[in-house]
Amino acid sequence: MPEGLSAAEVGKEIPEHNEHVQHAGPGHSPRSPDLDRRSGVALGRGPACRWSGYSAAEWGSESSILLAKASATRTQANRLGIEATQARTLDAVKFDSAFAAYATGNQKLFALAVNRFRPAYRSAFGAWIATHPLKNRSAPPDPSDLPQYTIAEQVQGQALDAKADVRFREGESASGIGDKYVRLTVVLAAILFLIAISSHFPVRVARYGLIATACALLILSIAQLATLPGPPA
Description:
mainly alpha
C-alpha cells in the first residue's frame, strides 16, 4: 500500500484490493463458497471503515479549527491585557499630579488634572476623595483600591481569556475523538485485510482462525463505533 495514505483512504483501498483478489484469474487460489460469503459480509463492513475514516478527518478538522480560534482569542486577550496595563499606568501617573494639587489646595490645577482622567477613573477618584484621604487614616491609598475602579480592557481581556480556555479544551476533546476514530479505522481496515487473505492459506484451521479473529475484532469495533459521537455538525 502506498505511503502517505490517510485513515479514510486506507479504508477505501482495502475493500478495492479485496475485490481485485476476489475477481483474480486462475493463477490465484480458489475460494470456497462459504469463504466468499464470509468475505462478502466483511466487505460489506467497508462503509463502516469509510465512515470511521471520514469521522476521523472531520474531528481532526474540528480540533484544528477550535485550537486556531483559541489561539486567536488568546492573542486578543493578551492585547487587551497590555492595553489595560497601559491604562493603569497612565491612571497612576495622572493621579500623582491630581493628588499633589489636592494636597496643596490648588483648585485650578486640581480641576485641570481631574478633567484629564479617564471617565471610569474619574468616577473612582471622586469616590476616593469622598473618603477624605487627607484626614481619614483608614481611607484607601488610592482610587485603584476601590470597587468603582474598573478598566474595560481588563474586563474584556479576562472574558476572552476564559473563552480561549473553553475553546482549547474543546479542541483537545475533538482531537481525542479523532484519534479514537483513526485507531478504529485501522482496526476495521485490518479486519477487511484478514478476510481478504484468509482464502490464500491452504490449511483450513489457519483460514478459519483468521476469520474468527476478524469477526471478534469486528464485534469489538462496532461496539466502540456505537459509543463514539458522530462527525461534528
